[in-house]
Amino acid sequence: MSVDFPRRGASAALASALRSVIDLIPVATLLADTVGQVAAVNDAWCELTGLNEQESVGQGWMAMLDIADRDQIGRAHV
Fold first, then answer.
1. Which of 5, 48, 57, 68 is spaced 20 to 30 Å from 40 by Cα?
2. pLDDT digits (tens, 9 = 90+) for 26-74
3. In 3D, which of 44, 39, 41 has the Cα closest to residue 10?
4. What is the DSSP letter of 57?
5. H/E segment holding residue 32
């Protein structure tokens, strides 16, 4: 999986290194930008949530929120 950071202009080497670190973290971890768009998740996230990486990226991670919290959290990231 490639991590894409077009707005930050990160180099391919930096993106690869960051991905390696995320994969080593033993707790559920997602990598998001300042508006809540997720670029990557680790295996622990997938195991905890039952979502695969494709389902989690973008704003797919919000499916794990309680429905009562989605609107409030969504507004905070827009």
1. 68
2. 999 998 888 888 989 999 999 999 999 999 999 898 888 888 888 787 6
3. 39
4. T
5. strand 30-32
